[in-house]
């Protein structure tokens, strides 16, 4: 198994809580299930972790692939429990409870821990059938996932390589655009819009085997809302935030990077904000090493931004301008996962992959954000991002 | 509000069960929440339906957009409940329970119904705080969603237009490929692979504002596994299944279509299977009208296939060849939603959007599947798909 998952922390927790197993009932959009099962399918399936193995329950359609591709020790198909007959007799809801209760019984499991996101319908159905169901609220699997194996790091690096190609394609469009008298950017005779740059990013990622749900190419006031994807014509003398978070279609691993550009002159305050954000980004990077907390790293970024006179959520929890999000987050099979680089961020461990992405926002000025993806090491970090930091876009 | 949602069936159910509200705790990947709230966000948020309105609870980052874009009657931000302070004091799990309990209290809600997929962690947390939580196991919101409004039909039509363009691009590649002596298809001097056709499909969809997670371009034995996406060189004299299910990036509405092609001669049995599948597809379409059940329509397809001598899951529940899936499924904000066109399929209503997609599978022969997307009407159906059915690929 390439992924080479170590579930011993989960098994220890099960033993400590006197639980026979850990059950996930979700589809492959649940990163924990994908990680634990080594399997992905379009429809829901179930993964049971016991002391002696990992056990999958899948539809007949998925059975062959699950046997070949998953990392599970056993794979059972639903028809073993006459699932279709149960559905016809009892409806889908009760059929599922009955099937799962039988599946657990076959594995000698009477008490289970489940993730917080475990469906209440399934939990209540199993409880009615005498299974003892307790929520594992610590997020142990997400904690295990936070520390990447060597294989996982390779996959994340590969996605970030694709991301760099996409960022370069976007930057080249910005760099080679002409500026009309009204300040709008024009490329190949047509207005250069957020949508056009986004399309170029997406096509570049596709050619590298990656996809994405969203990209941010946000100009001016759009960029001052960190969740605004941006739209319409891009303009000179304005800040343009480009944030790309692609996912490799095959492996499922994400990467993440942000750069902020401006053609022409965005003004003195915008340039100052860029410089201060870059200082905060460097201070946060400097603070990273195994043993410090995500809160420490977030604090390092806040220190720089507050010292320069900008509000942060630390200095003013209700501010809507300044630094209004966390410094970073874990990246892996989820785009946002553990560990957190925020006031709530716990200890960073070697092998944690995190983004470092301070920013400053104000609708009057626009947005600035600079983001790299790094892996924490014993004595610092290794940057997984190989992309120049600079406000002025350049071609190649 | 464009979507124009009618939640009266949900409110009646709440009243009948003596529940004060219906609570969803999920992210925008939950179609029910997107539908009920008219809102989509990258991070989890909560939607509460009461007798007097729809109420959102969102992070500060989403607040402005939620006020502007959502269809909710009220929008509350988490900071109203000092969420960050609660996280710092009690950890994320308990903080969320406390915040939600306070949010419910503010709306005078003491007892809630929740969807089956509601997180057990949240349900148990609220129960510990005295909230009466019961699972709504009927899937009322999914039932409401199954009947499309005029606006929704327009969105699905638009996605299917993009899908037709993508299918045409794929078919053109197959039609204009040359056949090498070893039977492999070649295009522009390079091997025509499943991956290359998939890329062409994806780029075409991107240019139409649509994206997709998966596409199936499966040749020969690959096509005999309905969930295999296909890979490697495409060959003449083999069946090639092309199944495309894109989603409009803006509206979130899916479409779905499958065609099966063959260059050269796939053999007599393959041609017979194509003809029988086309007959089953026509029989299923013919059976559709408001008032019949999804099971009836599925039965019409099974009749044709069984009469022609092929196994179905109806004639042999354990078969791994023949017709090994349902005849169709609802399509909307989810790619698989209500109603079901399967042995479990209930009554079809005017406005239901369903796929009709019988198929025949055998690793020795390959796969055949023909799929259109239709909307059920009072006296039949309207086909939302405008694409020729034919085994031989043609350009334009």
Automatic annotation (TrEMBL), chains A, B:
Signal peptide: none annotated. It comes from the Archaea. Residues 8-146 form the Creatinase N-terminal domain. One of its GO terms (molecular function) is metal ion binding. Residues 154-378 form the Peptidase M24 domain. Pfam families: Creatinase_N, Peptidase_M24. Keywords: Hydrolase, Metal-binding. SUPFAM superfamilies: Creatinase/aminopeptidase, Creatinase/prolidase N-terminal domain. InterPro entries: Creatin/AminoP/Spt16_N, Creatinase/aminopeptidase-like, Creatinase_N, Pept_M24, Peptidase_M24B, Peptidase_M24B_aminopep-P_CS. Belongs to the peptidase M24B family. This is Peptidase M24.
């Amino acid at each position: 198994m390439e992924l080479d998952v170590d579930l011993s922390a989960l098994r220890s927790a099960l033993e400590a809580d006197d639980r026979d197993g850990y059950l996930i009932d979700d589809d492959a959009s649940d990163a924990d299930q994908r990680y634990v099962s080594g399997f992905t399918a379009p429809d829901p399936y179930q993964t049971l972790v016991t002391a002696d193995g990992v056990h999958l329950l899948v539809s007949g359609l998925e059975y062959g692939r699950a046997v070949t591709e998953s990392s599970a020790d056993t794979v059972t198909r639903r028809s073993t429990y006459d699932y279709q007959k149960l559905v016809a007799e009892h409806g889908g809801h009760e059929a599922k409870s009955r099937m799962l209760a039988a599946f657990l019984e076959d594995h000698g499991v009477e008490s289970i821990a489940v993730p917080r996101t475990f469906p209440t319908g399934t939990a209540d159905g199993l409880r009615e059938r005498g299974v003892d169901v307790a929520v594992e609220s610590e997020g142990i699997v997400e904690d295990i996932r936070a520390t990447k194996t060597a294989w996982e790091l390779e996959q994340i690096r590969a996605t970030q390589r694709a991301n760099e190609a996409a960022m370069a394609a976007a930057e080249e469009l910005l760099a080679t655009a002409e500026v009309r008298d009204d300040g709008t950017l024009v490329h190949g005779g047509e207005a250069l819009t957020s949508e056009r740059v986004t399309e170029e990013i997406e096509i570049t990622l596709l050619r590298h085997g990656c996809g994405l749900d969203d990209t941010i190419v946000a100009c001016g006031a759009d960029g001052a809302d960190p969740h605004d994807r941006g739209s319409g014509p891009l303009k000179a003398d304005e800040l343009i935030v480009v944030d790309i978070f692609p996912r490799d279609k095959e492996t499922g691993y994400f990467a993440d990077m942000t750069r902020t550009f401006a053609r022409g002159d965005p003004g003195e305050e915008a340039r100052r904000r860029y410089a201060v954000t870059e200082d905060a980004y460097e201070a946060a990077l400097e603070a990273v090493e195994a043993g410090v907390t995500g809160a420490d790293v977030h604090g390092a970024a806040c220190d720089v931004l507050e010292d320069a006179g900008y509000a942060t959520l630390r200095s003013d929890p209700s501010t809507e301008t300044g630094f209004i999000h966390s410094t970073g987050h874990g990246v892996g099979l989820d785009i946002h996962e553990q560990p957190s680089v925020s006031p709530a961020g716990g200890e960073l461990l070697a092998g944690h992959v995190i983004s470092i992405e301070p920013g400053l926002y104000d609708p009057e000025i626009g947005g600035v954000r600079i983001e790299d993806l790094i892996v924490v090491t014993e004595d610092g970090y290794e940057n997984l991002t190989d992309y120049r930091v600079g406000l002025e876009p350049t071609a190649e």
